[in-house]
Amino acid sequence: MFGINYIKADPSTHLMQFKNGAVVKQGLGTSFFYYGPSSSLVAVPVNSKELPFVFRMQTQDFQDISIQGQVTYRIVKPGDAVKQLNFTIDANGRYVSEDPNKVEERVLRSVQVSVRNQIERRKLREALTCAMTLTNELKKDLDNVAALVSLGIEINDVALTAIVPNPETGKALEAEVRESLLREADNAVYARRLASIEQEKSVKESELETEKAIQKKQQDLEKATLEAEREQMQQRFQINQERIAAQIEDEEQLKGLVELNVANERARADAEAYKIKVKMDAYAQMDTERLKVMSMSGMGPEQLIAQAIENLTHGDNKVGNLNLSPDLLQSLLRQ
Known about the structure:
The protein is of the alpha+beta class. Helix content is 59%, strand content 20%.
């Protein structure tokens, strides 16, 4: 009515009113009345947007790969954005140009350039396994892209969902990896066999060492037994020698004793013989008759009669016949 209009923006839109080339009103989710013939309205969306992408790149070794992901961005400086692109809307809230759609193109182009720069520095194998590193580097690169900074755009997140080679290369890599895995499996089998052989060898060596140790122990035991027997034999021999020496000493002492006894007996015999000789010499010098008389001094009557009869059988007193009365014989027999 009379060119007076009313507009209300949603909370995710930064609304600006330009009049005579200057901003007279602005705000996030604001609403106001304005005079249409002399006012220009600008609406800049400041909500976060997710932009998926799929790029076909070439690695340093000239291999084609496909990179799939998603970038999240938002306009944090609407004033910078309106200086670069036309965000003017009409009375019905529709954009009057295609510039707002160019924001996604610029973001997508900036992401593509950064991804290309990172991939071209890497060979195929590295590029296929560098998702995390590539993500971090893309975040750093996009924060410093002049085209995005001039639009007041902030990159909130970059996510890489897939990095894949072309089908032929993928099959070749799969075949190579498969062969490598098979070789590793074979090597593992060989390693297990070698380990088993080494373990068996170790067991055999341990058994041999144990057997050697047992044999050595047995030899040491037999040697010790022989040494003990030899020591016992030496001890027995020494004991026998000592016993023989003791017996010899005893025999020597006994011999000395016997010799002494013999000497003593001989001395006693010599003394007795000398005594007898002296007596015999003394008797030889004496008269026989006198000796007889001396010997008869202690005789009994029967001995005297016997001596008298003997005297009658020799010498001058010898008789031819001798008659003895029965009474005399009877008397002699009773004695």
